[in-house]
Structure formats: structure tokens, C-alpha cells
Design brief:
- Helix 1 crosses helix 2.
- The chain is built from three helices and 23 strands.
- The protein has two domains: 206 residues, Collagenase (Catalytic Domain) (3-Layer(aba) Sandwich); 125 residues, Immunoglobulin-like.
- With 343 residues, it is mainly beta.
- Strand 9 and strand 10 form a beta hairpin.
- Strands 1, 5, 6, 7, 8, 9 and 10 form a seven-stranded mixed β-sheet that branches. Strands 2, 16, 18, 19, 21, 22 and 23 form a seven-stranded mixed β-sheet that branches. A three-stranded antiparallel β-sheet has the order 13-17-20, with no helix packed on it.
- It is globular and about 70 Å long.
């Protein structure tokens, strides 16, 4: 005879030297964490989203943010279209789909899970991810320099998939598993600080694998308190004469498994595409073990010979690609705001 333990998890709207994060949360059935026993197959439910539907695209992207993480053996497997109009625990299928506001508990999304009995270990037997159909969702890529005006489906999905793995809310670290959506920030499919270092450490603890991974990133967001984040810099324009100073800053994230010691440069650019062809105005080092999240703000000086005009400022980690990484595209970003250089 089987006994079931059910749970629903709701999401509501709302020189760098790093130290590792140790705050990821998950359930335990002594002495082991509660996890899936096997790889997971999911259904798109209660309707089949066509291949061009933005929800489907964001779900695939969100799966990839967990599946592409080396050093853990969990994997979301096949997508199975499910055309019936029902969705709920007990179907023996792991479903993901849109539901009414009431079915989502008034939250952005909810992950409902079913477990077997806790007796010398416990497994997750089934999980459904329900997204609120009454929410005005923001789909697709996002601007890493801004806070999105609407809820991001992509980052909400990354969060819910963390619950799907077995991770609980984490209010005390910069993590995609924070209790509110305020921690989600911009970025496209290639630019990925989320899952953050704390999320990655939690996933690897649940599904440990010997594979190694080096991956670090730069982000414009920081943690400001329990379940709260904000842009590190303002989005306005700083008027600064040549030879004068302005405020800048960024955050360094180590979501890999290895200690990282990387150089970085700060550049001024005439456009938001930050590269080594831009004017380098400062340099430094960012380093720390796996799980590191650290940010800093600092004054920067405008070169005396820089032409007057309106500039973007940005940062590049490992500008000469001296460190081999799983992902290189998340090493550079334009910071919020602009600097107007005057004579």
C-alpha cells in the first residue's frame, strides 16, 4: 500500500573577493534529501502549445538552464503533448501548463508535488507546474539592463523547475529560488546567471555527479534583503567631464564547480554591445569558490582624451578568454544608465 505526501509551492510577484553560498534549501527524509529516483519526462498540458508558441519556447529554454548544468545527473527528458483538458496529481504524468487564477492559488505559478512515504528515504513521485493564465506574462529574451515591467515567464519557469528538482525557497541568498519574482532579471538564452551559484550548489547536492564545470558570469543585479533584489546602478544619465569620475559597479557570480580567479575590464562604448574593441578604462580581478555571489560599486575616471558624447559603460570577465568555460556569452554586459561625457 502506498501513502502520498502532497505539497504546493507558490511564487508571488513581487576588487571582488567572493565567499561561497551555503543557504540552498531542500526537504530531507533522514538521512537523505528528497529527490527524483529517475530522469523526468514532462507533458505540456492542458493543451498542446504549437512549436512557435512563446510559452513552449520559454519552457525549452528553462529546461536547458538546468539540463546544461554539468556536475548533476538530473535531466528533464522528453516533452509529451497532452491534449486532454485536465491537469492534476494522480495522472502519473508530470504536467506543465496554464491554469486559472484560482487553480494557481492567486500566485504567478505553483508547483504541486507528490511523494512516497518517508521511510529510510523518500522519492518524488510526480510534480505538476501550473502557471497563472490571468497574469500578463513577458515572454522571450529580456534586457539585462532593466527590471521587467511584467512577470517573466522564462525566469518564473526556471524557478518552478528548481522546485520540480526538489529545491525549496531560499530567502537569504541571491538565488532564482527566492520567494518572490523580484530576484529575476533580464538576459537572453545564452546570457545566464540564473540559476545562480547558490541554486547550482543546491541542485548538485541533490543530484551529485563527478563531472566538473567552470562557469562564471556578470550581472547588474544584487540582493538587497530577504527575498529582495535591485539593480546595482541607476538607469539615469551621469554627466561627467573628461578627467572627472562617475559611479559604476557590477556583480560577479560563480555558478560552476571550480574556484575561479578571473581578470575583468571596464569599458566605455558608443553602443550597448560591449566588447574589447571598446575603450578600456579600468581593470581588476574577481575570484571566489563555487557558489560565490559578490558585488561592488566604485568610482571610475573618464580618460582625458575621450571624445565628448553619450556612452554606455560595461564589464567583461576574462576578456582574453584565458579560462575555458562551459558558457562564454555570460561574461559581458552593459551596465544600466549612460555617461554623458562633456568637454
Amino acid at each position: 500500500m502506498k501513502f502520498w505526501n502532497l505539497r504546493s509551492i507558490f511564487l508571488v510577484l513581487g576588487t571582488f573577493v567572493g565567499v561561497p553560498a551555503h543557504a540552498f534549501q531542500f526537504d530531507e527524509c533522514w538521512p537523505d534529501p528528497v529527490t527524483w529516483d529517475n530522469d523526468v519526462t514532462v507533458k505540456l498540458s492542458p493543451v498542446s502549445f504549437p512549436t512557435t508558441h512563446p510559452i513552449r519556447n520559454d519552457i525549452f529554454t528553462s529546461f536547458g538552464r538546468w539540463n546544461d548544468m554539468r556536475g548533476m545527473h538530473f535531466e528533464f527528458e522528453n516533452i509529451i503533448n497532452d491534449n486532454d483538458t485536465t491537469m492534476g496529481l494522480g495522472s502519473d504524468g508530470n504536467e506543465v501548463g496554464l491554469v486559472s487564477n484560482a487553480a494557481a492559488g492567486g500566485a504567478l505559478a505553483v508547483t504541486q508535488m507528490r511523494f512516497d512515504i518517508c521511510f529510510f528515504g523518500q522519492d518524488i513521485e510526480e510534480a505538476d507546474m501550473r502557471f497563472n493564465n490571468s497574469v500578463t506574462w513577458e515572454f522571450g529574451d529580456h534586457d539585462p539592463r532593466t527590471v521587467e515591467g511584467n512577470a517573466s515567464f522564462r525566469f518564473t519557469a526556471v524557478h518552478e523547475m528548481g522546485h520540480f528538482l526538489g529545491l525549496n525557497h531560499e530567502p537569504n541568498q541571491m538565488a532564482v529560488m527566492t520567494n518572490t519574482a523580484s530576484a529575476f532579471h533580464g538576459g537572453n538564452a545564452a546570457f545566464r546567471s540564473a540559476p545562480f551559484g547558490d541554486d547550482a550548489r543546491g541542485a548538485r547536492t541533490l543530484y551529485s555527479h563527478s563531472n566538473s564545470e567552470t562557469d562564471f558570469s556578470i550581472t547588474n543585479f544584487r540582493r538587497t534583503g530577504s527575498d529582495a533584489t535591485a539593480l546595482i546602478l541607476g538607469s539615469g544619465t551621469q554627466n561627467t567631464p573628461r578627467g572627472g569620475t562617475f559611479n559604476s559597479g557590477f556583480a560577479f557570480v560563480n555558478q560552476g564547480k571550480t574556484f575561479v580567479d578571473a581578470n575583468f575590464v571596464i569599458v566605455m562604448s558608443t553602443n550597448s554591445i560591449i566588447s574589447m574593441s571598446d575603450r578600456v578604462i579600468a581593470s581588476g580581478r574577481a575570484f571566489g569558490p563555487a557558489g560565490t555571489f559578490v558585488f561592488a560599486t566604485f568610482p571610475l575616471r573618464v580618460p582625458n582624451d575621450l571624445a565628448p558624447g553619450n556612452y554606455f559603460v560595461g564589464g567583461i570577465l576574462d576578456p582574453n578568454n584565458n579560462i575555458a568555460e562551459a558558457r562564454e556569452a555570460n561574461n559581458r554586459v552593459a551596465f544600466p544608465g549612460r555617461v554623458n561625457v562633456t568637454p
